[in-house]
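Budget justification aside, the reviewers requested a transparent look at the raw inputs and outputs of the sequence design task funded under Objective 1. We therefore reproduce one unedited record. The lines immediately below are the structure tokens for a 189-residue chain.
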């Protein structure tokens, strides 16, 4: 299915970063052969991500249960349903991932999520990636509200959202194996 748009390469650029949305086939490479093979397919250096257990598990669950099935279901709009690799240009490697929860719903809303390799935290990479993908998202005329959630104790992630004009809208409990308190956030057009 990736061959439907063979010449169309969607990327978002910033001075330091390139955001690359993974195609269905690239996601399958990641799942079947691992991130080292994915890096080869992207022609970048392999960087073994170091992420907290929660983020690592969340990524692997999203890979199997959301990104792969949704990119197969929506091949023309796959970039709304996939992980975007955050490539640090100077290092020529992936330092994290960012993505959306799908096309805007009837209210013009979708959600953004991101995770950064711990080796690269504190360098403004998440803020830059969120800024770039948010700008890209709001180019869609139907997009009105971009939502996010952050664990209550993740102050750094909360700062990323505040820098990007998100407003805290509430708090809720995610019913996980170990329940997690999160803040909810919104950024309006």
């Amino acid at each position: 299915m990736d061959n439907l748009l063979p010449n169309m390469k969607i990327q978002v650029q910033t001075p330091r970063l390139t955001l690359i949305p993974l195609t269905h086939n690239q996601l399958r490479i990641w799942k079947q052969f691992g991130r080292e093979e994915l890096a080869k397919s992207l022609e970048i250096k392999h960087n073994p991500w170091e992420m907290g257990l929660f983020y690592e598990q969340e990524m692997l669950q999203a890979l199997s249960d959301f990104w792969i099935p949704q990119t197969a279901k929506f091949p023309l709009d796959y970039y709304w349903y996939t992980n975007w690799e955050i490539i640090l240009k100077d290092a020529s490697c992936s330092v994290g991932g960012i993505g959306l929860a799908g096309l805007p719903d009837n209210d013009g809303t979708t959600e953004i999520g991101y995770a950064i390799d711990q080796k690269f935290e504190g360098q403004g990479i998440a803020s830059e990636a969120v800024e770039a993908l948010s700008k890209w998202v709001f180019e869609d005329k139907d997009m009105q509200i971009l939502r996010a959630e952050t664990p209550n104790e993740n102050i750094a992630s909360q700062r990323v959202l505040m820098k990007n004009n998100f407003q805290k809208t509430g708090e809720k409990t995610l019913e996980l194996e170990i329940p997690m308190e999160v803040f909810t956030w919104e950024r309006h057009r």
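The chain has a mean pLDDT of 93. Helices lie at 24-33, 35-42, 53-73, 125-137, 155-163. Computational costs for records of this kind are itemized in the attached budget.
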